Structure formats: structure tokens, C-alpha cells
# Entry
Amino acid sequence: MNRIGVLTSGEDAPGMNAAIRAVVRSGLYHDIEMVGVKYGFQGLLNESAEKLDAASVGSILQRGGTVLQSYITEEISKEAGQKKAIENLKKLKIDALIVIGGRDALHVTQSLASRGFPCIGIPATIDNDIPGIEETIGFDTALNTVIDYIDRIRDTASSHEKTSIVEVAGKDTGNLALYSGLAGGAESIVIPEKKEDVESIVEQIKRGSGNRYSIIVVAEGSVSGIDLNAKLKEEAGIESRVTVLGHTQRGGAPTARDRVLASRLGAYAIDLLMNNETGKLVGIKNNQPVNFDFDEIFSQEPRIDERMYYLSGRLSS
Ligand code: F6P
# Structure
């Protein structure tokens, strides 16, 4: 193995830069030529790649976002796009590719690997929604960002004895809402995995409306904060304020935990390639880096820890 490429794809997550740095510096340590592919898979389709040295990943460890940029393209999900990407990888003399990203990015990585190109996937998404992977890069930072906002909102909600709805990320999975709701002491948590309709959510909130004030954390994929607000007013006469955290959750300096996770997984991805192990997704289990076959991961559905959901209910009453 002489030349390894690295790219970030899909939505950015804090800690991606720390992972890029770890990949590049670990590769260089093994005398591998390292190449950064810009703009995710789109860059691969456009042959947009540049050689990276140790200095080119200097001072990025602490920065949010991704210095390699990211892009979402449909073309790479199709057979023709994947074939073209592999042709371009060969043209660029890249022997293996490391992809840092969330579910969609890792699905594409799986496809490239199954077409015979050596690939490793590093899970990075604030959603923490890769089945079987305990924690994705970016989740801890986003969680701390959300908690910071919940704490601030609680100060105001308690001073004015008002209900506040905080809408957090999570289109298909409610992990961020669940963890931030528990850590932020939310009175209600609304997540896509608990398929209550809005009426029963309103009922549940009405039952708790004896509270002086309350914080409702809602994952964007269950019901929008705006819609929930309207329903609460219409059906329960409860006035609330809505804060949609949106992209504030994606930006910001990664926490120490995310930097450590990203550094370990980045270095481990290179270790695997050095041992000629490819077609793997990396993660941490029992505090040790481990690897999984893509099929093993993607044959499962992302799940929340039900016990945490009930625990948060018990603690908030
Ligand atoms: O991956 C993080 C995330 O916040 C998802 O939860 C959400 O579905 C998506 O990004 C939204 O991204 P955008 O607002 O850029 O479309």
C-alpha cells in the first residue's frame, strides 16, 4: 500500500478534523503518501485531490467542521457514479480510501468496498445513529452544545414559569434528544422511535402541566417544535416558546472526548489497512478500537436505549 486517500462526506460533525489529522499523520508515520479528497464523493467524481503532509493537518484538531469540505451528491449512490469513483481512485493512484461520515456516507463506502475497492469507514455524525456503534464522532460535542442551550433556556423558563420547547437534531433517531433530555432534566422527551401521535404527546404534557415550568425536548423527526407549540396552545391552552437549535448543534470545537475518539479511530483505520484488512467500519467497544463488517452493521436498525427513555420519565416527574 503506497497511497491512501481520505475524505469527509455528508453532514459535517465536530471531530471530523481530528479524525483527518489522525488518519494523515498515522499514514505518514508508516511512510504512506496521503491524499485528501475535497468535497466528499463529489471530489472523487471530479478527481479533486491533493497531497497532504503533516503540516497540512496542523492546528485543525480543535476546529469544528471539516477542512476537506463536504458535499451531498446523489450520483455516488448509483452504480455509474460508484464505477466512475473507483476509476478515478485508480487514476489518482490511490490504493485505499478512508471515509469519515454518517450513515449515507458509510453506505456508499460499503458499496465501494463490495465493488472491490479497499475502503475503511469511520463513523462521524452528531446523530449517533449507526447501529452497533456505541458512539459516533461528533455526538458528544453536539450533546454538550444542546445541554448548554437547555440550561440557558431553563434559567429563563423557570424565571417566568413558562413552558419551553427545544427542537434538536434527529430525523430518524432520537439519541441526541434522549441523551440531552436526560442530561438536561427535560420534563418531556419526544423522539421518532416512540411513535406516539401529537395528541398523545400533548396529553402527556398536559398531565405534567402542574409543574411551574417545563422543558420539552423534541427530536426534529418526530414533530417540529413549531407544530408541537401550536398543538399545545390549541389543545391544552399551554403557551410555550420554541427554540430550534438547527445547525448550532453541528458547529463548534469538538470536546476532548470527541477529539480522543477521532484520534483513536483515525489511527486505527490506518492500522487496519497496514494489516491488509479492508471493507471495515471502525468503532470503540469496551474502550478498545474494534472493526465490523459493513453487513453486520447495516443488517441492523438504529435503536435507542429504551431504559434511558423510561429513566428520564421517572426522574422528571
Ligand atoms: O446529521 C445531522 C443532522 O442534523 C440530522 O439530524 C439532520 O437530519 C440533518 O443534519 C439536517 O441537515 P440540513 O439541515 O443541513 O439539511
Notes: The two ends are 58 Å apart (CA to CA). Residues 11, 102, 125-127, 169-171 surround 6-O-phosphono-beta-D-fructofuranose (CB under 6 Å). The CA atoms of residues 134 and 284 lie 7 Å apart. The chain has a mean pLDDT of 95.
